[in-house]
Amino acid sequence: MVFLKNGQHLPVKWLVLLAGWWVFAEACMRMRISDGAASSKFSTAKVALHTANLQVNHSNLHYAKAGVDSLPTLFFVHGSPGSWNAFMQYMLDSDLLKRFRIVSVDRPGFGYSNFGKAQSLAGNASSLLAVVLHEKNGKPVHLIGHSIGGPVVVKMAQQAPELFSSVTVLAGSISPFSEPREQWRGIVKSSVFRWLLPGAFRPSNDEIWEFKRELFLLDSGYQQLKMPVTFIHGDKDPFVSVENADYGMQKLTFNTGARKIIIPGANHFIPWQQYDLIKAHLIKL
């Protein structure tokens, strides 16, 4: 029996519910797919899938790859929470596979990349750059990042601009001035309530709270982005303001290859709900 300060006790049924929720939070909603299940799906579609683990700074980075190794690469980076299979539809697309090798990663703290242990924005970029270098084949590499994956691909391109032929930011949260304050995230991160968050939402809350401050660190590196950069955003995005696309364009006024595509009526989930538009953009890269 757990007693409260006023001498009352917490009913057993509530303890059972809390315990049940904790088990659910630990075991469920990890938003990932096993390599075996993924291989089965790709095999059914007659597409070869290669999954791998790379040790980077004593941490495990898990990623998946489809397509011919001699082709240019589309390198996908998911949002928060998420995992590599967020872009499975693209990796199964025969039109894209004729033109590209496609790599999609589990970012640090998600999927099978040290699940639960989120990293900083700079840590994400450095870790994923290791995958890019490991899979380097001498062909162009195109970065695509969704949501919080947006600032990650921007940071990657800032750190190693020579590696990338283009950057595409899908509904990316790159502006520190357009981020909602969400002070509750800091409270949850540093309290017992953190352990009540289910599955992937725990590292998600951890990294979002840190990223909000780290976005300011991107501002000093935009001059490195001389490759084509495209911002694609829905004007009805309830999570990441469309102002982020304008912010990116303001930072890249010197870059004649920078452009934005604003989709009327579209929300935050454009990689899946606006698939044809984004696929058309990728094919033109």
CATH topology of the largest domain, by name, is: Rossmann fold
CATH secondary-structure class of the largest domain = Alpha Beta
Largest sheet: 8 strands, mixed
Helix and strand pattern: EEHHEEEHHEHEHEHHEHEHH
Helix proportion range:
25-40%
Describe, in plain words, how this protein is organized in 3D.
It is a single chain. The protein has 285 residues and is α/β, with parallel strands linked by helices. It folds into 2 domains: 1-30; 33-283, Rossmann fold. Helices cover 36% and strands 19% of the residues. It has 11 helices and 10 strands. The chain has helices spanning 12-27, 35-44, 88-91, 94-97, 121-134, 149-159, 183-189, 201-214, 243-251, 270-273, 275-283; strands at residues 2-3, 9-10, 49-56, 59-66, 73-77, 101-105, 141-146, 166-170, 229-234, 258-263. Strands 3-4-6-5-7-8-9-10 form an 8-stranded mixed beta sheet, with helices on both faces. It has a two-stranded antiparallel sheet with strand order 1-2. A hairpin with a 5-residue loop joins strand 1 and strand 2. The termini are far apart. The model is unreliable at 1-5 (pLDDT under 50).
